Amino acid sequence: MLRAYLFLLVFIPLTFAIAFSAIIFTFIDGSGAMYHRHARFWARTALFLAGVTVEVRGEEKVPRDKPVIFMCNHQGNFDILALFRAIPVKFAWIAKEELFHIPVFGHSMARAGYIPLDRSDGRRALKSMDSAAARIREGANVVIFPEGTRTPDGALLPFKRGGFLVACRAGVPIVPVTINGSMQVNPRNRLELYPGTVRISFGEPIATAGSGRGKDELLMEQVKMAIEECLEK
User: Fold this and answer.
1) Which terminus of the chain has a lower count of CB atoms within 10 Å, N or C?
2) Closest Cα partner for 166 from 110, 216, 207, 119?
3) CA distance 185 to 191
4) Beta strands in the chain (DSSP E)
5) Which of these, 90, 89, 65, 70, lies nearest to 205 by C-alpha position?
6) pLDDT in tens, 133-190
7) What is the C-alpha radius of gyration for the chain, rounded to an integer number of angstroms?
8) Domain boundaries of the chain, sorted by first residue
9) How far is CA 114 from CA 17, 90, 93, in A?
10) CA–CA separation, 44 vs 100, rounded Å?
11) What are phi and psi for residue 141, nearest 5 degrees?
């Protein structure tokens, strides 16, 4: 417990300081590259402070010549830090729109070019999916947690369709990503923090080009199987 308190004592002001600096740099560099460097520095520093290492497998499977959608299981709070450390290309997050209304944090996400997904009603949801798909086709790599929330026990939760509908509209490959070890570092809904290793495994890209109406369910099953294949029991 003491370790967690000491970590938060440094992590919280560090997060605000880096977020503020990253926002300033977005006025100088509109590409988001400097913001992403800030985010990677933030992640590396936080992981070091927590005593957490990241092992990466299958990095060579990540395409470098076209945009992709990374779809990952969601084990815990350290998933985001580990993904910043592991993913070898610049990327943006697709996240629920409510997060973009959080002071400082939300503004920072917007300035970085992260993509909100509105799930409040059908019409607005479709509009936000089309907007997200257009951004991806223009060259943005994005990360989605298709479960929508953290798992309570390590098993995969049912996937939400939104990310797969975006993938079908964008027509870019999905790279399945399996996260192991995050729950052991910081158990869900508990303050405990333990040194350890988060293991990130990249799967083979799954094509979405030509996926038409109703194909999102097939993609969901393919991605789920790919993630489960590397999930440690």
Assistant:
1) C
2) 216
3) 10
4) 52-57, 69-72, 92-96, 115-117, 142-144, 174-180, 196-202
5) 70
6) 888 998 899 999 999 889 988 889 999 888 888 888 899 999 999 999 999 999 887 8
7) 17
8) 52-230
9) 19, 12, 5
10) 24
11) -80, 140
Per-residue pLDDT of 39-59, as tens digits, reads 999 999 999 999 999 999 999
Q: Which among 75, 94, 200 is positioned nearest to 150, based on CA atoms?
A: 75
Model pLDDT, residue 233 = 78
pTM, to two decimals: 0.90
Under 8 Å between Cβ of 108 and 39: no
Structure tokens that stand for 187 in this block: 């158990």
* 52-230 under CATH 3.40.1130.10, yes or no: yes
For the chain, the residue count is: 233
